[in-house]
UniProtKB/TrEMBL annotation:
Keywords: Metal-binding, Repeat, Transferase, Ubl conjugation pathway, Zinc, Zinc-finger
GO biological process: protein ubiquitination
Residue ranges crossing the lipid bilayer per the database entry: none
Protein name, entry field: RBR-type E3 ubiquitin transferase
GO function term, MF aspect, one: zinc ion binding
InterPro entries xrefs: E3_UB_ligase_RBR (IPR031127), IBR_dom (IPR002867), TRIAD_supradom (IPR044066)
Length: 180
């Protein structure tokens, strides 16, 4: 009996792997399964994925891209244009950086990843040199201008605020433990 089943199975042509058509969770269009959301197995078409990642780059409130959980870029990289993928990686690095630094040149204002050099660094977009002490445009031979920061500190202390050591914002203790 087993010989009959083995004989029939050997004569049957091998099954072809078929792409299963499903619908996109956003536009409800038919798509071929590529990479579902790892958490809920939800599917998106290339166009909707592109739009989601582009919107996240333009609007920080949509960042990072989510379904029921975080959609990691390496899962959907084949579906994204290289320009969108690069812009998303830069935006992700910006989002993850605690002490954000932007180019001091008003016409540029590009995000600068944490600098490595101690003696000064350049903006990756416009290549303007930046002073590491005051984080303004480099001023070789001149001292850093702290008059603006001095004015801000005077206003902060006038109203009874202190400068937060972590974020640098003016904060005032309203209530709570006197040891803080």
């Amino acid at each position: 009996m087993e010989d009959i089943f083995a004989d029939v199975a050997s004569k049957r042509p091998p099954r072809k792997k078929q792409k299963i058509a499903r619908t996109c969770m956003i536009c409800i269009g038919d798509i071929d399964i590529r990479t579902p959301c790892p958490s809920c197995l939800g599917l998106y078409c290339s166009s909707c994925l592109q739009d989601m990642f582009t919107a996240a780059v333009k609007d920080q409130t949509r960042f990072p891209v989510r379904c029921c959980g975080l959609i990691q870029i390496h899962h959907v990289l084949p579906e994204l244009d290289t320009g969108v993928a690069k812009a998303y990686r830069v935006a992700f690095e910006n989002w993850m950086t605690a002490n954000k630094l932007y180019c001091p040149k008003p016409t540029c204002s590009a995000f600068i990843p944490e600098p490595v050099q101690a003696d000064g660094f350049s903006c990756p977009k416009c290549e303007a040199r930046v002073c590491t002490k005051c984080l303004k445009q480099e001023h070789i031979g001149a001292r850093c201008d702290t008059s603006e920061e001095d004015k801000i500190m005077a206003i902060i202390s006038e109203f009874g605020y202190k400068k937060c050591p972590c974020c640098g914002q003016g904060v005032k203790k309203m209530f709570g433990c006197p040891h803080v």
